[in-house]
Amino acid sequence: MTRPDARALRKLILCATICAVDFAGLAQEPANIEHEIADYCAGRLAYANQHREAALFVSAIPRNSDPTRDRWRRAISPQDFAAARKNGDSIAILWFLRRKLVWADFAFQNQFGDWINQTTYCYRSDGSLALLDSELKSFHGGLRVVRDSYYAPGAALLSQYQGSWDLGTGKPEQVPPGFWDQAALVFLHASDLLSPGILRAGASRIPQSSHRAFSSQCNSCFPEFRDARLNR
Prior knowledge:
Blueprint: H1 6-50, E1 55-60, E2 72-74, H2 78-86, E3 90-97, E4 100-109, E5 115-123, E6 129-138, E7 143-151, E8 157-166, H3 190-193, H4 211-216
Antiparallel strand pairs: 1-2, 1-3, 3-4, 4-5, 5-6, 6-7, 7-8
């Protein structure tokens, strides 16, 4: 057997060490990005809670299997929005910062009321989707399914976390094969969400100061937001 050259062996060990460090760094990178996204969106959530006067309220009667085909309209009063919620309509509250959509909270459902998906979208200042947090409650299978999806600035899905529980008992339960899933709609850019396909009635207009009276009278309109990091 030929004795290995000592210099070549040192180079091999050095290369293996560097490669191991590089791979360790790569393995940690997605997690670090996720924490950065979570922290960023926590700031956007704080903005939404502190600037309710900037909220825009819209609703739609759920008539299509695809909610983007429904006729979304702007609520004209707190009573109008409350009535839409009571009637089982799909509803949404949108927040803008410097005339850009940064936070949107939707409640999508169908006309029969046998499922509802509460979906939150957090957008970066460039309009790209950072975090999508959804909570599906379905009477088809009796499950509550929570999903947190993290996105890179280039719209690539970094990771997704999912948890599911029995709708009645609250105990953890696996999603069974054949489950009638109603996954959240994905809008990778804020302009996609504000396109005529989802909000036809001029809801993409930036809210003016007249909305302050609306928001101050509609504290019950605002949902209780979840911290996406607690859903894992």
